[in-house]
């Protein structure tokens, strides 16, 4: 068994200004022999997730999503046989250093392939945690959308987050498989042992499951908009039904009051018998209208039917 080699871990926090970032990364570029394309990707950012092989190192670009923020962090990792260089523009979401955050307390004194696998495993775990936050948000929207008036901007906001997350993670899906396919052809890190192959396969499986969950969530968000407009239409129908009921109840009163208010010889209620007849006509008309509305189920509150459970017990 080969003797463990201490792995050097270097971190560079670049400023947002491109010229200042280029100046900050230059000493590391000269020390480690970074390719100009790597330097350009690190300083300009806005790259897709990818894994590139250079003469002496691997270059990993990853969009880091965590449960702490809706925004992603573009992370650049250069991997040699005995060292790792992390280039980014922000501090880690938790922990004192990127080494502590990415390795989760694992020792870096050992096999660089184990370190690379541990880093990829942590990045995928963070993406899954971010996915769980999005799923909880979608579940909360589904629960509230039928019970209260909801601004469509809430649904559109979550839909935008899911779409962006899907677009960026889709480019990251092949990375684990690329490492497995290139095993034995990587002089930069050496051949992956069977144990590392198993761990990489596990990471790839998690990534595949994550992409499937994102696709389902994206479809769910599209459905939520349809449910929102349907629920809004149902609430409008119920309100219109209440208004129509009130107008219908007041219709007989309006009719008879308008009729009796006309300037005839025996009106308004010059004779006692006419007054009694008018009140009787008004009452009978109201009773007939209310009875008809009861028969049509206007005053009955609809309740959802009880269905037999699909999985009793």
Keywords:
Methane Monooxygenase Hydroxylase, Chain G, domain 1; elongated; 7 strands; 2 domains; two-stranded antiparallel ribbon; 8 helices; 313 residues; alpha+beta
* Assembly status: single chain
Structure classification: alpha+beta
Number of strands: 7
Q: Roughly what percent helix?
A: 55-70%
* Element-by-element helix/strand order: EEHHEEEEHEHHHHH
Strand order of the largest sheet: 2-6-5-4-3
Radius of gyration: 35 Å
Task: Describe this structure as you would to a colleague.
This protein has 313 residues and is an alpha+beta fold. It has 2 domains: 5-231, Up-down Bundle (Methane Monooxygenase Hydroxylase, Chain G, domain 1), CATH 1.20.58; 235-295, Magnesium transport protein CorA, transmembrane region (Methane Monooxygenase Hydroxylase, Chain G, domain 1, Up-down Bundle). It has helices spanning 18-32, 36-44, 98-103, 112-144, 152-172, 174-181, 194-260, 272-295; strands at 5-6, 8-13, 50-53, 58-64, 73-79, 83-88, 109-110. The strands form 2 sheets. A 5-stranded mixed beta sheet has the order 2-6-5-4-3, sandwiched between helices. The chain has a two-stranded antiparallel ribbon with strand order 1-7. Helix 7 (194-260) runs antiparallel to helix 8 (272-295). The chain is elongated, with a radius of gyration of 35 Å. The two termini are 55 Å apart.
